[in-house]
Amino acid sequence: MLSEDPDVTGWVPRGLRISAALAWRFLVVVAALYVVVWIVGYLSVVVVPVAIALLLAALMAPGVRRLVEWGLPRALSAVIVLIGGLGVVGGLLTSVITQFVEGLPELQEQLNLSLEQVENWLINGPLHLRETQIEDFVNSAIELIQQNQASITAGALTTAGAVGEILTGFLLTLFVLIFFLASGGQIWTFLMRGVPSQVRDRADTAGRRGFASLVSYVRATAVVAVVDGVGIGIGLWLTGVPLVVPLATLVFLGAFVPIIGAVVTGAIAVLVALVTNDIITALIVLAIVVGVMQLESHVLQPLLLGRAVRLHPLAVILAITAGLVAAGIPGALLSVPLLAVLNSGIKSLVSGEEPDPGAVDVLSDRGADPGATAPGPGGNGPAAAAPDDARAHRETAHDGTSEATPDAGTSAGSDGDHDEGRREPDPA
């Protein structure tokens, strides 16, 4: 006869109880992630410019820091670096547009010649097509375009609206970038006030390590992009392909999307070589693109990114694919930097190591506490005495917390580091 106890937990197999507990927790996590992704997508007009501004801040922050070390005010240093960056980008775009306009007639002439060669091959080659068939195909294509003129016009209007959104996003990115460069440390300190005091030091260290990994990632990606653009550009120039500067610039910009961007832009360069020159030239350009890609993947990325930011190629591909599906081109651009930051930050949280003076304090100069924040000789972190001062400050803070709350599970005479290690894992 069964027991009259209403609790039936004992009758449920242990494996089923564990599976059910894991299942509902998994569903809660998935639901939370879905809500976060939905909110980010809903606020993409704000989130994307802020994320791009953070990437640019990671690229420009070392320059700002170096100018601050030379004695310039931080705000003035930020303005100088920002104006210099805008000047470089503006000059590059001006050069690209000028080269494209100058090379467009030659490109049209070579394109017409290639089309004539293709038509001659279709008529006199193995297919033996009649000229009337080719004309019918061209007329059908023109008629198809005319029939879909309304949708093409609507698409043009949509594109015009997208251009307006891009301009708005550019202005917002510029505005946010100014504040990131001028007062990034103060913004980060303000955000850390919302973190519970028990884990604030560890969260601060993890965040700064994450930003340091972002700086390393952006630096390495920029160097790789320059090598890709220059290498493929030289190859295009040697093989006589037109529009060398625009194509090299396209390769440079595409390289900021790891793996996929360089492959796509390299394929465009090969296609232009095939259309404007011949198949031999296209094969030579393809060999150049493959050689540059091999140099990038086997030499530059492992050497520049280092062990702290190194990501498995499978993780990179999956991150880019997920970002592309979720947010299009901005998602593909931002997914790998986000993965690098999360990788470094989570490793720091799990390990619970002390701050590394050469890798943690990159964004801010922390001028309020010279003993703990004075830049080191290399300009990449605090001075040598900073870790000891910061550790002593934390030990004092933890000792004060222990005196105020004697039931925290520690004694007043215990070691501060030991107490910190015992209390931090508690999420409360």
Descriptors:
single chain, disordered C terminus, 78% helix, 428 residues, mainly alpha
Layout of strands and helices, then pairs:
Elements: H1 14-42, H2 44-69, H3 74-124, H4 131-147, H5 149-192, H6 200-238, H7 244-254, H8 260-276, H9 279-309, H10 313-351, H11 370-373, H12 386-404, H13 416-423
Helix pairs in contact: 2-3, 2-5, 2-6, 3-5, 3-7, 6-7, 6-9, 6-10, 7-8, 8-9, 12-13
N→C terminal distance: 45 Å
Give the SSE string.
HHHHHHHHHHHHH
Low-confidence stretches: 356-363, 365-428
Structural class: mainly alpha
Query: What value does the average pLDDT take?
Result: 74
Radius of gyration, whole Å: 29 Å
Number of helices: 13
Helical content class: over 70%
Strand content: under 5%
Largest sheet geometry? none
Total DSSP E strands? 0
Query: What does the overall shape look like?
Result: globular
How does this structure look, described?
With 428 residues, the chain is an all-alpha fold. Among the domains are: 46-112 and 164-182, no CATH class; 200-353; 366-401, no CATH class. It is built from 13 helices and no strands. The chain has helices at residues 14-42, 44-69, 74-124, 131-147, 149-192, 200-238, 244-254, 260-276, 279-309, 313-351, 370-373, 386-404, 416-423. α6 (200-238) runs antiparallel to α7 (244-254). The longest helix has 51 residues, at 74-124. The model is unreliable at 356-363 and 365-428 (pLDDT under 50).
In short:
The chain has 428 residues and is mostly helical. The protein contains 13 helices and no strands. Residues 356-363 and 365-428 have low confidence and may be disordered.
